[in-house]
Amino acid sequence: MTRLTGSALRLTVFIGENDTWHHRPLYSEIVHRAHAAGLAGASVFRGIEGFGASSLVHTSRLLSLSEDLPVAVVVVDTEERVRAFLPELDALVAEGLVTLEACEVVRYPDGDRGAPASGPGDEGP
Hints:
By secondary structure, the chain is of the alpha+beta class. The protein has helices at residues 26-36, 79-92, and strands spanning 6-16, 20-21, 24-25, 41-46, 49-50, 58-59, 70-77, 97-105.
């Protein structure tokens, strides 16, 4: 996995919750492929309301329209690694929106769960 600080690229894939790849949720396939590609991180966010190219509004507020809610898969890594991952998405995403945005990583902890967390005002020893 990539250790990441400084300039990065954020990849966001907007798809429907019911989109699949070989009978598996598409969002899950994207996350697992990003992990296998060694990207720094990926997260899936489920929307409560939205619409896309079809102009049909999907919402969690009405039972009849609560199917296929919007999902955003967000991946952050270096520009080179994210752009190298784009062909994977071409093979997976038939319908959806893919965006790229420059960002800056200001904190990416190493995952050492035993170390105490420091916060504002913690100057250390």
